[in-house]
Specification:
The protein is mainly α. The chain folds into 2 domains: 154 residues, UbiA prenyltransferase (Tetracycline Repressor, domain 2), CATH 1.10.357.140; 130 residues. It has a two-stranded antiparallel sheet with strand order 1-2. A hairpin with a 2-residue loop joins strand 1 and strand 2. Helix 6 packs antiparallel against helix 7, helix 7 crosses helix 9 and helix 9 runs antiparallel to helix 12.
Length: 315
């Protein structure tokens, strides 16, 4: 465990509880994991747009704001709890708490306030169903994934991925007040996408997770086993991405797009597995490419759903 009460500035240790400077608004924005938040907002928006009902544009904007704030709150609470291992890992050691920009207790207070505010805003704006789902998502990410699973099981990201898969369901519920099969299909797409996405990252950051004692799949089962599971998930995900087309709430344009980008995803996952049998360094580079593509992949799937629906409205 790393002592977070001592920080370094210009090569000198600061005193107990001392911080380099008063935190800026940028430090607090960074606590919200804005890149993750942007994807959450986007998938939540797609859930709202695909819902067959209607919502006042102002209420829709407020609901999206609540989803964004809730996602940021979950990210902030994750950084609060994981500050000790964040300080160890190269990828995360420059986050606000490890680098001494924000006190750990301040991050906790900030995250709790945002969590409560996001759920209340959602409840007042659109009702109980969406606010309950939002509150459940924040609680699941903090208590089940961050506190319960992340440091205990290599299935951490498989089960914990449910939290990141719920925003389109919340968006749908904000419009309809209920949940039906369509948003659950969107949930399933993100849920199945999450393990290969994060395991690709864990492959080329394996040393980080091993040093921090986080039992990611490549650390516990070995890299080649993780590569095989990435390929398996990619193969299972491909037909699932076609379900919106098969079930009739997406059209041919989406179906063709999903088939094309899924074929590339499977191909990249296969390359990671194939190279892993011959050359570790090349396999890690392939994993880096797969991780980068996986972000683009999910964005394109949901953008295709959104664009198709908007085009239908315009035509």
């Amino acid at each position: 465990m790393t002592d977070l009460s001592v920080h370094v500035q210009d090569g000198k240790h600061l005193g107990e509880g001392a911080y380099a400077a008063a935190p800026s608004w940028r430090d607090y924005v960074e606590l919200l994991k804005p890149r993750v938040m942007s994807l959450v907002i986007f998938t939540g928006l797609v859930g709202m747009v695909l819902a067959p009902g209607a919502i006042h544009p102002l209420l829709g904007a407020v609901a999206l704001l609540a989803i964004a704030v809730g996602a940021g709150a979950a990210g902030c609470l994750n950084m609060w709890y994981d500050a000790d291992i964040d300080a160890i890992m190269i990828r995360t050691r420059k986050r606000p708490i490890p680098r001494g920009s924000v006190a750990r207790e301040d991050a906790l207070f900030f995250g709790v306030i945002l969590s409560v505010a996001s759920v209340l805003i959602m409840w007042l704006a659109v009702g109980l169903a969406a606010s309950t789902l939002l509150g459940f998502t924040i609680a699941f990410y903090l208590f089940i994934y961050t506190m319960g699973l992340k440091r205990r099981t290599p299935q951490n990201i498989v089960i914990g991925g449910a939290a990141g898969a719920l925003p389109p369901v919340i968006g749908w519920a904000a419009v309809m007040g209920t949940v039906s099969v369509e948003p659950l299909v969107l949930f399933l797409i993100i849920f199945m996408w999450t393990p290969p996405h994060f395991w690709a990252l864990a492959l080329y950051r394996n040393g980080d997770y091993e040093k921090a004692g986080v039992p990611m799949m490549p650390v516990v089962a070995g890299k080649q086993s993780a590569r095989a599971q990435i390929l398996l998930y990619a193969l299972l995900l491909a037909p699932i991405t076609l379900m919106p087309w098969f079930l009739g709430f997406a059209g041919l344009a989406y179906g063709v797009t999903a088939a094309a980008v899924s074929a590339i995803f499977v191909s990249l996952a296969g390359e990671v597995w194939r190279l892993g049998r011959k050359d570790e360094q090349r396999a890690d580079r392939a994993a880096r490419r797969l991780f980068a593509y996986s972000i683009f992949y999910l964005f394109i799937l949901f953008f295709a759903l959104l664009a198709e629906r908007v085009a239908g409205w315009l035509l």
